[in-house]
Amino acid sequence: MSEMMVSAGEAARRLGVAPATIQRWVDSGVLHAERTPGGHRRIYVTELRRLIAASRPAELSGPLAAWFDVLMTGDPAKVKAALIASRQQTGAWAETADEVASAIAEIGRQWEAGACQVFEEHAATEALRRAAASCAGEMRHADNAPRAALFTIENERHTLGLALAELVMAEAGWRPLWIGEGPPADELGLLVAKCKPDTLLVSASAASPPASIARYQIPLTEVASREGLDLILAGGGSWKRDPAVKRVITFKELREALA
Fold first, then answer.
1. CA end-to-end span of the chain, whole Å?
2. How many CB atoms lie within 10 A of CB 19?
3. Distances, alpha carbon 103 to alpha carbons 25, 110, 256, in Å
4. What is the DSSP track for the chain?
5. CA-CA distances (angstroms) from residue 45 to 4, 7, 39, 211?
6. What superkingdom does the record give (predicted)?
């Protein structure tokens, strides 16, 4: 079986560097690459894992290590207990969510480096998703609380960040309306008409193609503007800058945007 290879752009995304950096590393021999008949660079996944492993600290420490260990159990009950304990210690869901997000990112890096298996990553994220949903289900909302619809862009399956955002929003006095995986762009108007939210919180991960995000952002912004709704764009995706909307990446930033 031939060894898996990725494009220079994908290599840059996985390593968290600019595409020009990948080109420089290939030219200097830091990374080995092959060229396709069309002249495009292709880089071995094993090469990426070698660099990722070399750039990581030998051992994790502090809250990151603690979260990593509990998430890797894949046990929703243990993860929920850890969430509640962290919330009591930090005093706010935003701080807890940012800590957990760092641990999830570390699990992703471990997978990229070949230090953990796909099923382990899936078990960890699913345990967190279930634990966060359970915590959110126990929170109460005032009848007159402002309503926020939470969903991703169309064809985006990464909803874990929204699960943590739900906790932050509920604590801030909002009533989250969970939509999850993004509705088609042509249904956004119907969603607003039926759910009657005051705010739209929409997430796109770094894995989402920029073109897909841009296509979705156009009708999304139009609907929010037409209906007089606040729009918060979240996640690591490449949203286009727009002074009319709020852009957040961390959960602390989300809390501030809701104030």
1. 54
2. 15
3. 28, 10, 22
4. -PPPEEEHHHHHHHHTS-HHHHHHHHHHTSS-EEE-TTS-EEEEHHHHHHHHHHHS-SS--HHHHHHHHHHTTT-HHHHHHHHHHHHHHHSSHHHHHHHHHHHHHHHHHHHHTTSS-HHHHHHHHHHHHHHHHHHHHT----TT--EEEEEEEET----HHHHHHHHHHHHTT-EEEEEEEEPPGGGHHHHHHHH--SEEEEE--TTS-HHHHHHHHHHHHHHHHHHT-EEEEESSS-PPP-TTSEE--SHHHHHHHH-
5. 6, 10, 19, 25
6. Bacteria
pTM above 0.85, yes or no: no
Q: How many CA atoms lie within 13 A of 227 on its CB side?
A: 22
Amino acid sitting at position 45: V
CB atoms within 10 A of CB 59: 6
The label of the residue with tokens 């890797």 reads 72
Q: 140-194, pLDDT tens digit by residue?
A: 989 899 999 999 999 998 899 999 999 999 999 999 999 999 999 999 999 999 9
Whole-angstrom Cα distance, residue 6 to residue 181? 27
Tokens of 31: 């990374």
Strand partners, 247: 233
pLDDT digits (tens, 9 = 90+) for 74-117: 999 999 999 999 999 999 999 999 999 999 988 887 877 677 88
Tokens representing 27? 């030219």
